[in-house]
Amino acid sequence: MQCLIGIPSFVCFRKRVERASTTRNFLRLQTGRILIALYLAVFSSTLLSQTPDSPQTSPESTVRREPRTSFASRVDRAPKLDGTLDDPLWQQARPISNFLQREPYEGQQPTERTEVRILYTKHYVYFGIICYDSNPKGIVATELRRDATQHLDDYFEIVIDSAHDRRNAYVFQITPLGTQRDALITEEQKGDSDDDGDSGWDGIWTSEARIGENGWTATVAIPFSTLNFMKSSDVIWGINFKRFIRRKNEEDLWSGWQRVNGMTRISQAGELHGISEIGSGRLFVIKPYGLLGFQRLPESVAGTGLTPGWSCLCTAGVDAKVGLRSNLVANVTVNTDFADTQVDLQNFNLTPYPLYYPEKRQFFLENAGTFNFPLGGDSGDLLFFSRQIGIDPVTGQEVPVNAGGKVTRSLGNFELGVMDVDTRESGPNPSANYLVGRVKRSLWAGSYIGAMAIDKTSSSLTDSYNQAYGVDTRLLFWRNLVATAYAAETRTAGISSGQSNWGAGLNYKTNWLELFAQHRTVGPNFNPEVGFLERNDCLCNYIDATIKTRPKLPGVREIQFEAFLFHAPDTKHVLQTQEWQGTFRIEFHNGSYSDDDIVDVFTQRLTEPFNI
């Protein structure tokens, strides 16, 4: 159904959406009304009678008094990193083997045994991994691309919270073929896909893996410098491990194995003790680069600020990371290199709102969690978005960075960060300077309160400055209720009112129910030029509820019904956007699933044309 009503217009349509997942090779199933009706009947009868899990969960899966603890053993030399644990040094480490299932049966013993051993030297931490398998021929290992999703393969994952702030962490994954994936987890966020963390970050680490007659094994070596770690006494890390068995669609975790948690819930990770007297030298990593080339621009670029004809691309620069003292790290960039940055995946935008593209430049990804300031728990808006620096917001082309510096530090319960970047004039983009300051104070597990200030100055005569500042908090209660709140304001030349933005949200999760509710009031002139904002002038209300059940049906793991409503009038209470949707899902034990929108009605008020 489509309708166009006058000018201004409301565009209304009913749509059926097929959500395609590029991260899993899941079988797509389309269910008809008869199948939906059948499972509606099954759902209603099983929801009232089922226990949270089937089979019965163990007491350990529902009660967790203290974090699990592991220990690292000191060795004088590096163990042999050949993908096996044949080196006698590995026997000096205490084996970690008390994994529990997260999927399919929460809290139950895994179907296959897993062991992890941890060693360290002056500059490295080492992990020896044994993934026993009763059927080694059933091990799935196909992916060879670094940082590609590994959900199609067996894999092992290590998560390290080296700052022990219980919110942010590094992710290291390896498959039986030795294929690597690394990522950052920021404020316990899952990321845009089913993978854990943002894989835009690339760390320095080595690994090797082998498949044998008893399963597969792996060895991993991670420099302390990759973890921005220099502290040498009283060391406690947050740490967690996960094994994924593809053919069984089984997840085994060492800590945080509850389905409402998972690997991104850093506050539910265990602890690593035993590391002491590591390298006394300062952290120092330097990456110089040089570039020589030529480019030719057509005559059609005349008048755009670019010069037509041939020109030389001759440039050089350097990125450096320096440890000034324990937990105080400085990152410096001079004439930043964009050549090693991954290319953005291009998306078609059929809306009047901007698309979000993740940051992929290493200088900005280092300790990115310190500068994270979300404007709403599920909105995607950010008070600070580093891609606004050094990238043309319209064309996506590079804007040269003269120099930049960033200092981050953990000081007791406080997390501090200061960044300053200077860009030079390029085409229509004037020269500009960006100064960002951020402070967070950790509260109880996974909770914090913080403040941020941003100042942008430019050589533009019409937009000489833009400032933004705000406070925010994230509070975790009873491990399954998260409350978020923020208040922010901007200052822009020539504007005196309507520049505020505030909001609050609640997120509640159990094994059978998920609820999310959020309200945001965005002023008509709220303008964070160094942030990401989908829309301003909005009274945005969002509520989402998902009911889940795990009936005893052959091959079926979980049935879900989800409904949400997004209602977004402007600050004059004139409706701009509204969407309501009902979705029916079935997930099967083999990983296939059905995802069907029973109804999806979307309304968008259009008052002026926009480019597609």
What would you say this structure looks like, in words?
The chain is mainly beta and 612 residues long. The chain has two domains: 67-273, Immunoglobulin-like (Sandwich), CATH 2.60.40; 284-549, Porin, CATH 2.40.160. The protein is 3% helix and 44% strand. The protein contains two helices and 31 strands. The protein has helices at residues 33-47, 362-365, and strands at 2-4, 9-14, 28-29, 69-71, 73-74, 100-103, 114-120, 124-132, 155-161, 169-174, 180-185, 206-212, 215-223, 237-245, 250-253, 270-273, 284-297, 309-325, 328-334, 401-411, 414-423, 432-442, 448-458, 465-477, 481-492, 500-509, 513-522, 538-549, 556-569, 575-588, 593-606. The chain has an 18-stranded mixed β-sheet that branches. A hairpin with a 5-residue loop joins strand 10 (169-174) and strand 11 (180-185). The longest helix has 15 residues, at 33-47. It is globular.
What is the name of the CATH topology of the largest domain? Answer: Porin
- The chain-level mean pLDDT equals 82
Supply Rg. Answer: 26 Å
Indicate the proportion of strand residues.
35-45%
Low-confidence stretches: 1-64
> Helix- and strand-based class?
mainly beta
Cα(first) to Cα(last) distance is 22 Å
Index terms:
44% strand; 3% helix; 18-stranded mixed beta sheet; eight-stranded mixed beta sheet; 2 domains; 612 residues; Immunoglobulin-like; disordered N terminus; Porin; 2 helices; single chain; mainly beta
